Amino acid sequence: MSGAPRAVVFDCDGLLIDSEVRWAVAERRVVEALGGEWTAELRERMVGGSGDNTAREIAAWVGLPESAAEDVLRDVYTGYLAVLDELGVEQMQGAHTVVSAVAGRLPLAIASNTREATVLAIVLNELIVNAMSHGLAVEGGSVVIETRQGDQEITVEVRDDGPAHAPVEPSGAGSGLGLQIIRTLVMEDLAGEFELYEQDGWMCARVCFPQRLGEG
C-alpha cells in the first residue's frame, strides 16, 4: 500500500466506544447467576480468547462439566446483547479528538454498531479465531477472509488450509460448540444461512444474510 489515504473508516468496538467493558458485564452476570464468584483471575483467563474459551473457563470455574459450555456460551452472547440494550456504551478516551482531527480533511465512515452488526462481529470473531487456530497451526498455513455484496445479499467467507479439523457433518452445520452458536446467531439474528464445507484442501465457513445492515 502506498500514497496518502483517500478515506478513513473507524471501527466502533474498542476504538470509538468501550464495548469491552460491556462484554465483561455479561460474563460477570453469567458467572454470578451460576453461583460463582467474579474475580480478576477469572477475567484474566478469558481476556483475548474466543467465545469457546470463555464458556469453558466459566463452566470450569463454577464447577460445571465441559458439556455445559454450550449453554454458558449462549447465555454470554445473549447477555451481551441485553447489556448493550440496557446500559449502552461509553466513548473511548481520545475518540472525539481523533475523529475531529480527520473530519473535513478526508471522507469518513463508521462501521455500524447496530444490533445486527454486533451479532455479525461476534460471528466473524469466532470464525476467524477458529480458522487461525488451524490455518496458522503449521508453517505456511493460510487464512483467507472474503466478502461479496450482491443486490440483495451479503456473503462473508472465512477459510483456512490447516490440519486437525473435525469432520464436516452432512448438514454443513458443523458440530463444534462455537459453530453451533454461530449457526443460531446467523439464522435467528441475521435471518441468514451458515454453511461449513471442505473444498480443495480448504475448510470454508460461509455466512450469507440479507443486505439490510445500516438501514435505519
Describe this structure in words.
The chain is of the alpha+beta class and 216 residues long. It has helices at residues 20-33, 40-46, 51-61, 69-87, 95-102, 115-135, 177-189, and strands spanning 8-10, 108-110, 143-149, 153-160, 193-199, 202-210. It is built from seven helices and six strands. The strands form two sheets. Strands 3-4-6-5 form a four-stranded antiparallel sheet. Strands 1-2 form a two-stranded parallel sheet.
* Overall geometric form: globular
The appropriate CATH architecture of the largest domain is 2-Layer Sandwich
Strand content: 15-25%
The total tally of domains equals: 2
Return the CATH topology of the largest domain: Heat Shock Protein 90
Question: In short, what is this structure?
Answer:
The protein is an alpha+beta fold and 216 residues long.
Task: List the keywords.
single chain; 216 residues; alpha+beta; Heat Shock Protein 90; 2 domains; four-stranded antiparallel sheet; two-stranded parallel ribbon; 7 helices; globular
